[in-house]
């Protein structure tokens, strides 16, 4: 007959084996997740797609961690990595984001034969972008319209990727990766499109889904020609360099910037 003590030892051993199995499964999923995220980051800068994949995988791991903690009450929860480097950007200008949506894309008002500059006055410094109205007229027209409405003012640049593809993504008033102006418009300037350092292009969630989110390229990337390039940085590249060099808030290769990058104001002006 099995004694109470033997039965308790057997149950404890079985419990330990279950915990070990769950930990091994969790580590395997984490390894698979990191490989997948790395592959996604190498080819995508999508308003929601890449982020959704990472979130879905992270949620699965969190459930596994919660199960392990329940089985082993003495286990310490896994702490998320935090970037503890000093922040060097200024505090945001006074003011709040004013939520705005529009039923349709704006009517064409820009001169497609003229040159336009867009200036991002950020908490980390000013970035000037020469807009290509001839090759991306609908995109430039949209930015001209939204800037006049102060749509971008006080919004945060919500996403940074580092490593082989270093880009900063901005233009979402919700800072969630899924916000937009309420309208979408088709892609432009994709024939033979490349993304060298200094390129400014539209983020999207598939063909013809351009809204307000855009990204600034710090280093040349091998992105496929799926993202409308509509401008290039002509001033303030050192500002982008500083933001990228500071990394992400959680030290990952794809996440919120460590620096608090806020667009205090965005203006578009026709050059004389």
From TrEMBL:
The chain crosses the membrane at residues 36-54. Residues 17-27 have a biased composition (Basic and acidic residues). It catalyses: [protein]-peptidylproline (omega=180) = [protein]-peptidylproline (omega=0). Residues 1-31, 61-91 are annotated as: Disordered. CDD domains: cyclophilin. Residues 125-268 form the PPIase cyclophilin-type domain. Keywords: Isomerase, Membrane, Rotamase, Transmembrane, Transmembrane helix. Its EC number is 5.2.1.8. Residues 66-86 have a biased composition (Polar residues). PPIases accelerate the folding of proteins. It catalyzes the cis-trans isomerization of proline imidic peptide bonds in oligopeptides. This is Peptidyl-prolyl cis-trans isomerase. It comes from Streptodolium elevatio.
């Amino acid at each position: 007959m099995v004694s109470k003590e033997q039965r308790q030892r057997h149950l404890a051993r079985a419990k330990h084996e279950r915990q070990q199995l769950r930990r091994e499964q969790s580590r395997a999923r984490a390894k698979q997740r990191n490989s997948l995220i790395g592959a996604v980051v190498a080819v995508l800068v999508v308003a929601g797609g890449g982020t959704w994949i990472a979130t879905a995988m992270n949620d699965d791991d969190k459930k596994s961690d919660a199960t392990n903690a329940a089985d082993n009450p003495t286990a310490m929860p896994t702490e998320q990595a935090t970037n503890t480097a000093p922040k060097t950007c200024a505090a945001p200008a006074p003011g709040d984001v004013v939520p705005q949506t529009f039923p349709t894309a704006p009517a064409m008002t820009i001169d497609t034969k003229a040159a336009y500059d867009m200036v991002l006055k950020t908490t980390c410094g000013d970035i000037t972008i020469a807009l290509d109205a001839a090759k991306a007229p609908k995109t430039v027209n949209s930015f001209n319209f939204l800037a006049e409405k102060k749509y971008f003012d006080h919004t945060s640049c919500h996403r940074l990727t580092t490593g082989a593809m270093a880009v900063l993504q901005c233009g979402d008033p919700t800072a969630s990766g899924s916000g937009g102006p309420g309208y979408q418009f088709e892609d432009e300037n994709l024939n033979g499109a490349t993304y060298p350092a200094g390129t400014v292009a539209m983020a999207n969630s598939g063909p013809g889904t351009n809204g307000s989110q855009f990204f600034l390229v710090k280093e040349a990337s091998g992105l496929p020609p799926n993202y409308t390039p509509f401008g290039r940085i002509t001033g303030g590249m050192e500002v982008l360099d500083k933001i990228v060099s500071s990394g992400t808030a959680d030290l990952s290769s794809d996440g919120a910037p460590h620096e608090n990058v806020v667009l205090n104001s965005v203006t578009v002006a026709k050059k004389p």
